[in-house]
Request: fold
Amino acid sequence: MRVLHLPKWYPNRYDDQDGDFVARHVAAIAQAAATEGRAVQAAVLLATVARGPLPNLLEQDLDFTGPVPTLRYYYRNRITGLPPVDKLLKLGLYFWCLSSGYRRLQQHWGAGPISCTCMCCCERECGPGGSGCATVSPTS
Reply:
């Protein structure tokens, strides 16, 4: 089974403590699967607004070296300077980053279904269609 975590909070280049409980949750899943001999592959895909200036519209930080592949995408906070327009553009960039990261994971793992999950600020698993969740692929 493959599990893709789509957190809103996760340690990133601006704050290594941001969403550290999610990082612990993901590490526990990977460790429990390895301990029990289950074939579970987990990955993290974070798309978030950059807290500092970016030279380009977006940047990516892809790490496939550890036991849990971690893909971080950062996009600009102010794109046009017009708040209503920027809000729509950031929403589009958020979903573009998710789909780009999903395709990248499919290349890394090979084709096949990926179960998606996300974590709310209250540390409970929402599941597909839950409050504040974005499901990139249906669960098989």
Notes: The first helix runs from residue 20 to 36.
